[in-house]
């Protein structure tokens, strides 16, 4: 193999899997052919003009050339770099020769559907309670487990979410939460789901169903095209840099040529906050102007379309009445900062439609307004028709540090029912009256979790109270650099009922040096006439030194029902990687007396364990929890930390104990596998091994890779590992001279494995006894020599620095014929 190398080559002619980067951003991964264009030329990659155009390079159409295209010699400003050791090709092309693309765009060529594999994610919890009431003791044990499992077959994802719980008075119950299959339709920027899922909540209120869903996916858009932002327009006098800041932070920076420019890929950090635009010319002069910016969630950028089509049967896990339905909705971003949207929903005994528009009002904020119409056949035999107007407003007052957002729902007639109300009305109809379910908040159930069946109660009434009016208000106020004040109000009223659901929250957060403190006030009231008010004051102080996290916290809270409670506690982490966490807390209340609790948690490479014990005057409670995952693949089964939707299976044979850079506690196991439990779909994800964990005798030439998984994929990333000796060779030629500095050293497989240093020193890793190495510094006769590594003799013990030292003669080899 090495006989095919010529001067300047660091790779053999052939076809290899290469990562291709354009201006330091990966744009492709493909089988790339390397060959010589002429007999005496260097080995070069073969990319056609069409390949370069797909990468965004502007090329003339008039001089079309078939086959391999030499971009570097054609465009003098273009540079190309090849790293054969890590199979990476870098192209550096000036922006003037590139087609403009959205900021952060990822080529669909990089999308990785992953491997065929299965997984299981579990969360187990057991609680043992001992309660004392009126001189009697009561024992209650609760057990709960949630299991999320899935199988990946090509582009299809099969999924199931289930729970099982055991509780007093209800026994053991298994619940199938949802089962579904889904896949990407990349050419449509969409996803297809078959099974049990939920509808979107932008046009209609969301609800669960069984059926089919076809919907656009905003995840496939780069961040710079998601949601809404205004087009930034201006004029540059020269090749200039444009910087955009929002709320004091730089959110965008790019180069523009002289002349008018329009930037449509700005990605603001929040839904409101004016954009300060700076145009910095080539001579350093700066022009600054402000673009007002506010947005509401249902607004889109010019040219972006979102849609959703749902067909199936209503399913919420409770209702016996489950009507069939079909629902469709669409929104389109237009010029002049306008987003019209609308939808229809047709079901058994129910029809509804929505039409609306969102608009950026510039300095006046952003507004959306829509009208909904419904036609409902009630279980009582009546037919109701009504209208609903929805209003949403957002505005940021930058100079005052205020973000103001208002959302109001007003049902103008008592005849309006949303789909959830229409289903509930028929489901609750029982022999001429309506059943209303609620949660029992009686003090007699102290220590019983709210989710238990024992807390559920019902009452019956002659009317069904559909929603009438809802008002949501949110105001956030920054005060200086470290303080903030907020107010949230939510109020829901009902037709035919005086009671309302209301929540009012207000808070203040600040810090002095390293001390954090806050005040939180809340007032809640339900339409069941239950109300509660609370005031909470918190104080937090870090105590750790030397990088060790230890934090103390104290609080005072007062509620209408329980009076004043005092709390103080401490929490922190142990071990070098902070995988062990602990906490202890004590509290006192005049009614409940003193209470205390301790907790301990450990994040292991194969799962997490949590322990908690609470003790009070009237109760004692101990709980133990375990969470983790299992990935089953072609190479076996790998235990993991808790899994998320999109995973990366990392393979590195012989690298047991080497950790993952971005996954605390995870490390390669005995079988050579580890799992990165969370990855961002349709985005570049860096998968890296901790180089500090790589011991002597193990070489990993490329310890980091970038992957772009699709949603739900289990992507396999395999790292090449070479196990063997690390050797420092003192080389000499037969005549006593040393090979020239910078000469390339090739391993037995023809890949570059180092260069010659001063005095003929060569450091190589991952080699075995008897390996033949080629040292080459030219293509002429005598411009190469070879050496053979001897076995490890008994008198050559591996020193503490982690490598052997040996002196070898590098024997001259004849000129190799060119392929």
UniProtKB/TrEMBL annotation:
InterPro entries from the xrefs? Fimb_usher (IPR000015), Fimbrial_membr_usher_CS (IPR018030), FimD_plug_dom (IPR042186), PapC-like_C (IPR025949), PapC-like_C_sf (IPR043142), PapC_N (IPR025885), PapC_N_sf (IPR037224)
**Has the keyword Transcription regulation been applied to this entry?**
no
Please name the GO terms that the record assigns under molecular function.
fimbrial usher porin activity
Report the superkingdom from the record.
Bacteria
Query: In its UniProt record, which GO terms are filed under biological process?
Result: pilus assembly
Q: Which Pfam families match?
A: PapC_C (PF13953), PapC_N (PF13954), Usher (PF00577)
Q: Where is the PapC-like C-terminal domain?
A: 728-787
Q: What is its main location?
A: membrane
Which segments constitute the PapC N-terminal domain? 2-126
Bilayer topology term: Multi-pass membrane protein
Record SUPFAM superfamilies = FimD N-terminal domain-like
What is the annotated localization of this protein?
Cell outer membrane
Show the Gene3D superfamilies listed in the entry: 2.60.40.2070, 2.60.40.3110, 3.10.20.410, Outer membrane usher protein FimD, plug domain
Looking at the keywords, is Membrane present? yes
User: What protein family is recorded?
Assistant: Belongs to the fimbrial export usher family.
State the name under which the record lists this protein. Answer: Fimbria/pilus outer membrane usher protein
Organism of this sequence: Pseudomonas proteolytica
């Amino acid at each position: 193999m090495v006989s095919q190398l010529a001067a300047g080559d660091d790779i053999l002619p052939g076809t290899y899997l290469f990562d291709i980067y354009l201006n330091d951003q990966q744009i492709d991964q493909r089988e790339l052919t390397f060959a010589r264009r002429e007999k005496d030329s260097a080995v070069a990659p073969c990319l056609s003009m069409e390949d370069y155009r797909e990468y965004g390079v502007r090329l003339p159409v008039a001089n079309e050339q078939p086959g391999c295209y030499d971009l570097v010699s054609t465009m003098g400003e273009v540079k190309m770099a090849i790293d054969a050791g890590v199979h990476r090709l870098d192209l550096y092309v000036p922006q003037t020769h590139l087609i403009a693309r959205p900021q952060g765009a990822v080529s669909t060529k990089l999308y990785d559907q992953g491997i065929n594999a299965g997984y299981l994610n579990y969360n187990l919890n057991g609680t043992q309670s001992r309660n004392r009431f009126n001189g009697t003791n009561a024992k209650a044990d609760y057990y709960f487990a949630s299991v999320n499992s899935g199988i990946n077959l090509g582009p299809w994802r099969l999924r199931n979410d289930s729970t099982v719980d055991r509780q007093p008075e209800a026994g053991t119950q298994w619940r199938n939460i949802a089962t579904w299959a889904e896949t990407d339709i990349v050419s449509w920027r969409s996803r297809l789901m078959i099974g049990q899922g939920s509808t979107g909540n932008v046009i209609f209120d969301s609800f669960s169903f069984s059926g089919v869903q076809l919907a656009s996916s905003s995840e496939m858009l780069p961040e710079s095209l998601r949601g809404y932002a205004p087009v930034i327009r201006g004029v540059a006098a020269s090749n200039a840099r444009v910087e955009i800041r929002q709320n004091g932070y730089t959110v965008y920076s790019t180069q523009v040529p002289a002349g008018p420019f329009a930037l449509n890929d700005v990605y603001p950090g929040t839904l409101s906050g004016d954009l300060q635009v700076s145009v910095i010319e080539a001579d350093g002069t700066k022009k600054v102007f402000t673009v007002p910016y506010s947005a509401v969630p249902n607004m889109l950028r010019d040219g972006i379309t979102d849609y959703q089509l749902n067909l199936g049967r209503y399913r919420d896990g409770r209702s016996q009445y489950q009507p069939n339905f079909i629902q469709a909705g669409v929104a389109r971003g237009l010029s002049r900062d306008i987003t019209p949207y609308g939808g229809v929903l047709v079901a058994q005994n129910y029809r509804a439609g929505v039409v609306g528009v969102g608009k950026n009002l510039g300095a006046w904020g952003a507004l959306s307004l829509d009208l909904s119409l419904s036609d409902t056949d009630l279980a009582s035999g009546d037919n109701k028709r009504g209208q609903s107007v929805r209003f949403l407003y957002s505005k940021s007052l930058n100079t005052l540090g205020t973000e103001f957002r208002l959302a109001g729902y007003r049902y103008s007639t008592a005849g309006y029912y949303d789909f959830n109300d229409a289903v509930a009305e028929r489901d609750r109809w029982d022999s001429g009256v309506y059943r209303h379910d609620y949660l029992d908040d009686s003090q007699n159930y102290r220590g019983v979790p709210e989710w238990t069946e024992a807390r559920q109660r019902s009452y019956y009434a002659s009317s069904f109270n559909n929603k009438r009016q809802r008002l949501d208000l949110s105001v956030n106020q920054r005060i200086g650099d470290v303080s903030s004040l907020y107010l949230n109000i939510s109020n829901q009223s009902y037709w035919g009922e005086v009671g309302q659901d209301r929540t009012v929250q207000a808070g203040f957060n600040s810090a002095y040096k390293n001390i954090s403190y806050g005040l939180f006030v809340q007032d809640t009231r339900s339409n069941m006439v239950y109300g509660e008010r609370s005031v909470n004051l918190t104080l937090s102080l870090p105590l750790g030194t030397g990088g060790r996290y230890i934090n103390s916290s104290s609080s005072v809270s007062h509620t209408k029902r329980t009076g004043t409670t005092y709390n103080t506690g401490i929490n922190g982490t142990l071990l070098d990687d902070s995988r062990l966490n602990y906490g202890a807390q004590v509290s006192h209340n005049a009614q409940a007396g003193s209470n205390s609790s301790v907790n301990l948690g450990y994040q292991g490479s194969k799962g997490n364990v949590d322990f908690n014990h609470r003790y009070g005057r009237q109760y004692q409670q101990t709980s133990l929890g375990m969470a983790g995952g299992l990935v089953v693949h072609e190479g076996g089964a790998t235990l993991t930390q808790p899994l998320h939707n999109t995973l990366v299976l990392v393979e590195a044979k012989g690298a047991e104990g080497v950790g993952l850079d971005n996954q605390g506690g995870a490390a390669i196991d005995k079988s050579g596998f580890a799992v990165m439990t969370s990855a961002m779909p349709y985005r570049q994800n860096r998968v890296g091994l901790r180089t500090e964990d790589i011991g002597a005798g193990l070489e990993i030439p490329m310890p980091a890779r970038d992957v772009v998984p699709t949603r739900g994929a289990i992507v396999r990333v395999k790292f090449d590992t070479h196990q063997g000796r690390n050797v420092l060779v003192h080389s000499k030629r037969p005549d006593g001279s040393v090979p020239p500095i910078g000469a390339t050293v090739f391993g037995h497989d023809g890949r570059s494995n180092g260069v010659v240093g001063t005095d003929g020193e060569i450091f190589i890793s991952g080699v075995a006894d008897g390996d033949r190495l080629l040292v080459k510094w030219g293509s002429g006769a005598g411009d190469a020599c070879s050496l053979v590594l001897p076995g490890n003799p008994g008198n050559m013990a591996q020193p503490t620095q982690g490598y052997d030292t040996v002196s070898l003669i590098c024997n001259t080899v004849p000129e190799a014929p060119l392929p």
